[in-house]
Amino acid sequence: MPKDQTILFHSTIFGPIHSRRLGTSLGINLMPADGKVCSFDCLYCEAGFNAQGAGKAGLPTREKVREDLEAKLLEMKTEGTAPDVITFSGNGEPTLHPEFPGIIDDTLALRDKYFPGAKVSVLTNSTRIFTPEVADALKRVDNNILKLDSAIDPTMRLIDRPNDPNFTAERVIDALCQFKDTGIIQTMILRGEYDGKPIDNTTDEEVDALIAAYRKIQPREVMIYSLDRSTPAENLQKVEKPELDRIAARIREAGIRVMDY
User: Fold this and answer.
1) Residue 168 CB burial class (10 angstroms; 0-12, 13-18, ≥19)
2) Residue 125 CB: number of other CB atoms within 10 A?
3) What's the confidence (pLDDT) of residue 230?
4) 188-243, pLDDT tens digit by residue?
5) Residue 44 carries which DSSP code?
6) Which of 33, 74, 124, 189 has the least C-beta neighbours within 10 A?
7) pLDDT (mean) for 39-46
């Protein structure tokens, strides 16, 4: 059974916060400040399930994002606090925003103006990479971080629960190949059960399939991680570091770079 689990960002710009993988991160939330909008309904999402609804605030406009971001960057410049990264994440899937490509352009321009040493990162679930203008925008950022939680379709559907019935592991792996040498593939490693169905992407079959997918995609690097916060679904288990180390070693043996975690 699901828990009442909702952790939302209640503003367009949030932080800076410390990211264990990215450093000092200033966040950008392109989704409503009082609800969640996502093309996945992941069992482990800290923002909760999509059933909570999209709220009433609506999506922030491109102009509001630009104005709020510039105000925050100016404040940080005045204080002498520099972000390592400006990260698109928040209450759902950022690439669903209809003005996402233009917002990326604005963000890169403001980054160059105030903190040219900072990186721009996007955390995406990969559902919109089939749209050329979205894919092109992702190619312009420094860290294009793309989700692939399983290369086996039934497991992916259990963990990520995509809204689109035509979204399959095979189809997304083919599309991810367009980010060869530039994209970062992010994979959540976990086990447990949901609605009476076992979930485990740590098995030899699952890891072999992921390695085959990584080889096909040829990303810049792979980011594996496990649960770090409470989840909306009960009965999910964190995979501890020694086991992550073993999985990472297998991926590295295949000639694929794995980011420190």
Assistant:
1) middle
2) 25
3) 87
4) 999 999 999 999 999 999 999 999 999 999 999 999 999 988 899 999 999 999 99
5) T
6) 74
7) 96
Mean pLDDT of the chain: 95
Print the SS3 string covering the chain: CECCCCCCCCCCEEEEEEECCCEEEEEEECCCCCCCECCCCCCCCCCCCHHHCCCCCCCCCHHHHHHHHHHHHHHHHHHCCCCCEEEEECCECHHHCCCHHHHHHHHHHHHHHHCCCCEEEEEECCCCCCCHHHHHHHHHCCEEEEECCCCCHHHHHHHHCCCCCCCCHHHHHHHHHHHCCCCEEEEECEEEEECCEEEECCCHHHHHHHHHHHHHHCCCEEEEECCCCCCCECCEEECCHHHHHHHHHHHHHCCCCECCC
Task: Report in angstroms the alpha-carbon separations of 45 from 30, 71, 172, 253.
Answer: 17, 29, 20, 30
Task: Quote the CA–CA distance of 154 and 27 in Å, as a whole number.
Answer: 32
Q: In the sheet that 23-29 helps form, which strands lie side by side, from edge to edge?
A: 13-19, 23-29, 85-89, 119-124, 143-147, 184-188, 221-225
Residue 78 C-beta-side C-alpha neighbours within 13 Å: 6
Cα 33 to its chain centre, rounded Å, is 18
CA distance 126 to 151: 13
- Asked if residue 162 has pLDDT above 90, the reply is yes
β-strand partners of 37: 92
Please state, as a whole number, how many other Cβ atoms lie within 10 Å of the Cβ of residue 36.
Answer: 23
Length of the chain: 261
pLDDT number for residue 5: 52
Strand ranges across the sheet with 236-238:
197-200, 190-194, 236-238
